[in-house]
Amino acid sequence: MIHARGLTRKFAVKRETVDAVRGIDLDVEAGRLVAVLGPNGAGKSTTLRMLTTLLPPTSGTATVAGRDIVADPAGVRARIGYVGQKNGAGENFRVRDELVTQGRCYGLTRAEADRRADEVLDRLELRPLAARRPGTLSGGQRRRLDIALGLVHRPGLLFLDEPTTGLDPQSRADVWEHILRLRAEYGTTILLTTHYLEEADTMAERVVVIDHGRIIADGTAARLKNDLAGDQVTITVHDAADTARAVAVAGRIAAPDGVSAEGVTVRLRVPRADAALPEYLRALEAAGVKAVTAEISRPTLDDVFLALTGRTLREGEGAAA
Ligand SMILES: Nc1ncnc2c1ncn2[C@@H]1O[C@H](COP(=O)(O)OP(=O)(O)OP(=O)(O)O)[C@@H](O)[C@H]1O
């Protein structure tokens, strides 16, 4: 469905050049749900805008839904749906009329546009809101309308740029439920961007991590976590003297860069925490150090990002808020 090679995009800002995207290779098979994850400014939206022909690449090539993004942008647009970060619906029409108008923009006859509008109203459970004006909808309802607008012409491939950003948790869950249902019922291929780690982790079957305009990791969330981050063992001890000894003992169990300490807390990054914890506790006891608390945790995608870049994605999330 998507085959991109060496996509780059530069922007001239005053006298500077911003390398927003620095060489993206991406293949997405039909029927997949792929989340593109990365901090603010990583190049996610720019990549999406190139793939949807809204922005020409500086260099590189891509075919999307079987059409070349540079040679046949109209062919690409006819075959895809795109839901950008800003609301797609205007304020002049009622919800159903917005959908019909969108269908007409895609060249559907009036009768076809009517039929498709009704279909997407049902599919996204917007029927009770059909006569409302978009401005009166809640954030989550409005996002569902945006997605409906992207689906009127029944595309096989849907691009969603941060579909859940700014929504409350319940609306986010609701939008996700509809995205997953679309995929299950219609086999729609979906490429979406997000900076919500948990969403990428639990919802997408493939996560593409972008940083500074490059793909730095690509795979299932489970594989990325296993291969790149490892489990964590966390213990607390009584005092600073014990911390120093606990760190020294930890050096025998975890790699030197996998051990960190803060106050009376010592953390170890290990391949298998369930095996490492008892071993560590025994070694501590032999060294005369008593652990006050001990716990193990599985890695998150944030740990993956940290392992790859030395930074956390959550910092970016905070900056965005
Ligand atoms: N039209 C533009 N002109 C100049 N610079 C731009 C333009 N669009 C994007 N950029 C820059 O390109 C870089 C990548 O931006 P992009 O919007 O693709 O990031 P992003 O990963 O989507 O971030 P966010 O999560 O905040 O949407 C940023 O440094 C941004 O400032």
From TrEMBL:
High-level lineage: Bacteria, Bacillati, Actinomycetota, Actinomycetes, Streptosporangiales
Matching PANTHER family: ABC TRANSPORTER ATP-BINDING PROTEIN, DOXORUBICIN RESISTANCE ATP-BINDING PROTEIN DRRA
Example GO BP: response to antibiotic
Membrane topology according to the record: Peripheral membrane protein
Location(s) in or outside the cell: Cell membrane
The protein, known as: ABC transporter
Stretches assigned to coiled coil: none
All residue ranges annotated as the ABC transporter domain in the record: 2-237
Keywords: Antibiotic resistance, ATP-binding, Nucleotide-binding, Transport
